[in-house]
């Protein structure tokens, strides 16, 4: 087997069955990083010594007959925003350059308890605030399909590392398409769960122990090379953890095996007023036809009667108010409580309208972003889409709609454009139905062909 491009599920099984040792799996991934990372700059902080010790312990445990966890001995990376004991967590922000948390975040605790071997961190946008992964501490991450183009952000290092076999999986954050957009740009899978499904505790460096300001729209979720891997990691990290009180006590179910012939799929090649490259909208239509030919009930979506541009603006306003509330301010400049509640009421209306849509459809197939990976540029630079300049700030629009509504959504690779760059399409489902959404994606995966390795890796 080739451990660096094996699925997480297969690699865990191979270690469990002692076809490969945990140390061998780790060394293979570190060698892949050493061979390719200098050009891509996806992996930015290491714990080689600690990872080797944990891998040796994993092998010894198997030798003594101890029951393995679902990730026993599997090496992995994490986006540089999770608090980790003994490793720096910087979010690419100079004031956090030397910050080391005193303990692991709940998500890290769960991954380690499942037997995972954390070996390194992956690059991000500064403070997770852009759709390119570039920062003053570690520089920029290139796209493995074309180094002159971005891997996306803010989880760009994670997506590039997964795509190139440097890691079997990673866990990113998604407040405005920050998992799905880089997953699409790099040709891998990425899941944004329903809001309040995965703990946000310790999901950002917090040296001073300040009150957590991000309470809405942000989600943690896995990036991987298969739907099965997304499902495995999601089941490990999801659910109440005793730290994040916002988490819903909803059962995390196993991914069901679904037949395409039982599914009702709506598709939207674009959203009203949202720009999109013609090759992306054509990929949506092509996949819809293939699914219909395979027996699914497919129809072009009658999208909810919402002003989606206004939803994006309202989502941005809520993010701004959360950030504002987190900053010290003089008494004469209080945060407007009434403005906050009005914004939440507006959001509730949008959520309920989308809920009604998903009562009629099992999933919505649509673009992840308005373009495939674009050339590195200064944030704010207009982006060319089919030769026409479009606003940089519309890059995450198709994904951000579902951060605002809280619905689960995933990005899945679906071929390449005429420049040889991956096209990622988005699949969106009913709230609290991640497992079913993953089952739908698994049923579709054979039609799309799944993950394709970038040339040269």
UniProtKB/TrEMBL annotation:
Domain Amidase: 24-311, 339-438
One GO cellular component term noted in the UniProt record for this chain: endomembrane system
InterPro entries: Amidase_dom, AS_sf, FAAH2
Gene3D superfamilies: Amidase signature (AS) domain
UniProt name for this protein: Amidase
UniProt organism field: Mesorhizobium loti R88b
């Amino acid at each position: 087997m080739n451990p660096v491009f094996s699925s997480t599920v297969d690699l865990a099984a191979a270690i469990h069955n002692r076809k490969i040792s945990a140390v061998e799996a780790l060394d293979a991934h570190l060698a892949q990083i050493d061979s390719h990372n200098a050009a891509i700059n996806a992996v930015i902080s290491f714990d080689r010594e600690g990872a080797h010790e944990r891998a040796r312990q994993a092998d010894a445990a198997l030798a003594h007959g101890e029951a393995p966890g679902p990730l026993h001995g599997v090496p992995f990376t994490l986006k540089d925003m999770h608090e980790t004991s003994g490793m720096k967590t910087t979010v690419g922000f100079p004031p956090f350059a030397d910050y080391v948390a005193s303990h692991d975040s709940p998500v890290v605790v769960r991954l380690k308890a499942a037997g995972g071997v954390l070996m390194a961190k992956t690059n991000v946008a500064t403070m997770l605030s852009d759709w390119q992964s570039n920062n003053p501490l570690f520089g920029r991450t290139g796209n493995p399909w074309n180094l002159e183009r971005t891997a996306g952000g803010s989880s760009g290092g994670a997506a590039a590392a997964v795509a190139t076999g440097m890691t079997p999986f990673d866990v990113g954050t998604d407040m405005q398409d920050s998992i799905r957009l880089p997953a699409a740009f790099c040709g891998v899978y990425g899941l944004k769960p329903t809001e309040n499904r995965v703990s946000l505790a310790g999901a950002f460096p917090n040296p001073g122990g300040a009150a957590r300001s991000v309470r809405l729209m942000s989600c943690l979720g896995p990036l991987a090379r298969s739907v099965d891997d997304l499902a495995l990691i999601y089941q490990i990290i999801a659910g109440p953890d005793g730290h994040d009180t916002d988490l819903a006590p909803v059962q995390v179910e196993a991914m069901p095996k679904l037949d395409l012939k039982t599914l009702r799929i709506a598709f939207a090649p674009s959203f009203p007023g949202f720009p999109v490259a013609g090759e992306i909208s054509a990929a949506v239509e092509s996949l819809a036809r293939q699914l219909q030919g395979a027996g699914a009930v497919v129809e072009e979506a009658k999208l909810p009667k919402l002003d989606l541009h206004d939803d994006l603006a309202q989502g941005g306003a809520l993010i701004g108010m959360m950030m504002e509330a987190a900053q010290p301010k003089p008494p004469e400049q209080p945060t407007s409580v009434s403005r906050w509640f009005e914004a939440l009421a507006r959001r509730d209306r949008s959520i309920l309208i989308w809920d009604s849509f998903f009562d009629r459809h099992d999933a919505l197939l649509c673009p992840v972003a308005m373009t495939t990976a674009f050339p590195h540029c200064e944030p704010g630079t207009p982006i060319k889409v089919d030769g026409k300049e479009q606003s940089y700030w519309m890059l995450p629009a198709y994904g951000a709609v579902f951060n605002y509504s809280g619905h689960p959504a995933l990005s899945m690779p679906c071929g390449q454009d005429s420049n040889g760059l991956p096209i990622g399409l988005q699949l969106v489902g009913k709230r609290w139905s991640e497992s079913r959404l993953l089952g739908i994606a698994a049923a579709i995966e054979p039609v799309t062909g799944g993950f394709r390795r970038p040339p040269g890796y």
